[in-house]
Amino acid sequence: MGLLTSFGKYLILLRLIFSKPDKGSIFRKQILIEIDNIGIASLGIVTIISVFMGAVVAMQTAANIDSPLMPIWAVGFTTRQSIILEFSPTIVSLILAGKVGSLIASEIGTMRVTEQIDALDIMGINAGSYLILPKIIAAMIIFPILVIISMFLGIFGGWMAVALTGIVTVHNYLYGIQIYFEPYHVTYALIKTVCFAFLITSVSGFHGYFTQGGALEVGKASTKAVVYSSITVILANLILTQLLLD
Amino acid sequence: MIEARNISKCFGDHEVLKNISVKFEPGKTNLIIGQSGSGKTVLMKCLVGLFEVDKGEVLFDDRNFSAMTFEEKKHIRKEIGMLFQGGALFDSMTVEENVVFPLSMFTNMSVSEKRDRANFCLNRVNLENVNKLSPSEISGGMKKRVAIARAISMNPKYLFCDEPNSGLDPKTSIVIDNLISEITQEYQITTVINTHDMNSVIEIGNKIAFIYHGELWWEGTNNEILTTNNKEINDFVYATELLRRLKK
Q1: Per mean pLDDT, which range of A102-116, B40-54, B168-182 is the poorest?
Q2: Contact residues for B135 (Cβ-Cβ < 8 A; gap 6+)
Q3: Is B106 on the interface with A (CB under 8 A)?
């Protein structure tokens, strides 16, 4: 399938997805289920990655500050900036692209090859809207919350590394994470995250929705979903950074 | 009544259905039969609207389904029940939730009313004490029966069954066939069954449409199919050694 054809099909699917849900009460219930499936269930991996990421950033920063002209609080400052600007929104989103993207593509792909989506179509239910829209909305709600948690845990991980290794004093680290704080950076990170959430869920939903064949094709669709959603996240990261931080 | 008028369907250069016109009457089990690859599944998918026809019309009680918009089709779809080859039950739901699902989507019934209706439909297909099980915990035959229960939960006017006996043993196949036949007569449903199972043809084939290389080759009843001189029909019906010996 050509790239242009795929993009056209993606846009057609988006039009289908963003049509009025068949029943509001069921739609709201689906959103809550998806928040649990793709958000709460990802809390564990987000916690582990964030704490270790923060610790490593703090240790690497400390190890690379050789110049006596650099203030020692730069470790805390750099850790905070790296975590808020890039590591939490982008790296966590990439991790979620792997976890959530493959989950969505394999779930919808399996429903396609076992004719469950055909069953929905025949009942007169808009399968795109019923299956994919709640996932998109749920991700756009829960991903920013996960990223905020990740920011706190990343900075906490840095503090833990500092406290346990003594590379800099805890006092200097705490001073560093508070100095020159720009609240807009958090807004920027959250805007990015919401866009990433949309891309990950819609691209993965697209790959699942158009799966044809059997178990092998579901596996391939799942892999494609992770690859393409990761690429779109990275591209969107570049564009959004240029637009929002310029 | 369901009517196909001169419908054709191509996939690329390959013409799968060639100018097919056929009528399926209510209260009868109408069978579409033919060899694998003859086009019977495509015909059924065209009838239910999963495929758009390239030429011709599909009419549900004189309502032109092919010419309708997505929203207009929704009204007719609510009158359609379909039994898929593998059941197509929703894995994430229990048996009861599967049967209740169309009621939740399209009616304003209370929880107890929906449960009562689900129990009625499950009892109608002779299933008891399976409400809380998931589809993966029940047998193939039971899945088919749950799928029938789901299909009839909305009191459909039209019932489509895609190879309802595939993967089932002969005894269970007869149970499913009889169930479909009984429901068809009881509720005066227009039932269309896609099959290549000769037992079904003989047992419940009130009307049979034989598709051969994408064309409607022959139409008749279960009695007529055994006595016809049509070569292609005879090749299909008496494909096995057992049937050939029985014929002799």
Answers
A1: B168-182
A2: B87, B89, B90, B91, B93, B95, B98, B143, B146
A3: yes
Q: How far apart are CA A233 and CA A90, in angstroms?
A: 8
- pTM, two decimals, is 0.89
Q: Is A116 on the interface with B (CB under 8 A)?
A: yes
- CA distances B205 to B185, B193, B210, B211, B242, Å, are 13, 9, 12, 15, 21
A121 touches chain B (CB under 8 A): yes
Show residues of chain A in contact with B90, CB under 8 Å: 111, 116, 119
Yes or no, beta carbons of B105 and A114 under 8 Å apart:
no
Residue of A nearest to B75 (CA): A124
- Picking from B74, B88, B105, the nearest residue to A116 by CB comes out as B88
- Looking at residue A218, its amino acid is V
Token code pair at residue A178:
């508070």
Beta-bridge partner residues of B191: B29, B159
What is the mean pLDDT of the segment spanning B71-99?
Answer: 91
The 3-state DSSP class for residue B17 equals strand
Task: Give residue-wise pLDDT tens across range A182-211.
Answer: 999 999 999 999 999 999 999 999 999 999
Q: Tell me if A114 and B88 make a contact (CB, 8 A cut-off).
A: yes
pLDDT band for position A1 (50/70/90)? low
Neighbours of B206 (CB within 10 A): 17
Distance CA B26, CA B114 (A): 27
What's the confidence (pLDDT) of residue A140? 97
Q: DSSP for B155-216?
A: --SEEEEESTTTT--HHHHHHHHHHHHHHHHHHT-EEEEEE--HHHHHHH-SEEEEEETTEE
For B32-68, the pLDDT digits (tens) are 999 888 889 899 999 999 899 999 999 999 999 988 9
Q: Are strands B2-11 and B55-60 parallel, antiparallel or unpaired?
A: antiparallel
How far apart are alpha carbons B18 and B34 in whole angstroms? 14
Of A114, A122, A125, the CB nearest to B80: A122
Residue A244: per-residue pLDDT = 93
